[in-house]
Amino acid sequence: MIFVIQRVTEAKVTIGGEVRGEIGKGHMVLIGVADTDTKEIADKMVRKMCNLRIFEDENGKTNLSLADVGGSLLLISQFTLYADCRKGNRPSFTGAGAPDMASDMYEYIIEQAKTYCPNVQRGEFGADMKVSLTNDGPFTIVLNSKDL
Length: 148
Known about the structure:
This protein is an alpha/beta fold. It has helices at residues 39-51, 99-113, and strands at 2-15, 18-23, 26-32, 55-56, 62-64, 72-77, 120-122, 129-144.
C-alpha cells in the first residue's frame, strides 16, 4: 500500500464537472492498493498518516498532527502509484490491486480514517477525477507499507 500525503491549505476533487470533495487545511492523500494488502496493513497506514506531525507549531517546527490543527482529509484512489516503468516507455500496472479488492480496501481506509478525523472527504474509485490543491510548503511524504 502506498499513500502520497500532501500537506495542503486547500484541496478538492471534481468528477464530471461537480465538486465531490473539498477541504481546507489538512492532507490530500493519493492511495494505491496492491493485491497483497490487508486490513491490518491499512490500519497501520491510516494510523501513521493521521498521527504524522507535519504541521508547524508556534515555533515553526513540524510538531503538530492533523488532530492538533483540526485538519481534514481528502482521500483519492490512485492505482497508478503502482506503475512499473522499468521496461519500455509504457507503464505496466500489474502491481496494482484487482479492482474489486482495491475498491473494498479504499472504502475500508475511508471508514478507518473517520475514526481519527471528523472531516473525511473522498473521490470515487475508478472515476475520471480532477484534483486540485495548494500544497503547503510544499510538503509531501510517501508512505509505503513495505517500510512500516
